[in-house]
Design a protein that fits this description.
single chain; four-stranded antiparallel β-sheet; globular; 92 residues
């Protein structure tokens, strides 16, 4: 469970070993993703009820517009990963 205040962000990373699902429980945000092969950035507005699937290797960041509650779900346990996270930077 992740909690954000307006203007807060989390991300600027990718996961090489698992898919991440993010369910927006309350609030609204902007999600920015960058696909590794194309390097194309996508900007997605999300709000309560949205569910985002972030594939392996896709860099992502979430920017809270309002107070935001997110449930993050991973397809592989964090502790079972050799490299669970790789930091990168996306523009805001």
């Amino acid at each position: 469970m992740l909690y954000f205040t307006p203007g807060a962000s989390r991300g600027n990373h990718r996961h090489p070993e698992f898919v991440e699902y993010s369910l927006i429980v309350d609030g609204s945000a902007v999600v920015v993703t960058k696909d590794a092969p194309s390097m194309k950035e996508r900007v997605i507005h999300v709000s309560k009820g949205s569910c985002i699937r972030t594939p392996k290797g896709v860099t992502h960041t979430i920017y809270a517009i309002t107070n935001l509650t997110v449930i993050a779900m991973l397809t592989k346990p964090w502790d079972d990963c050799n490299v669970p996270i790789i930091r990168e930077t996306l523009k805001k």
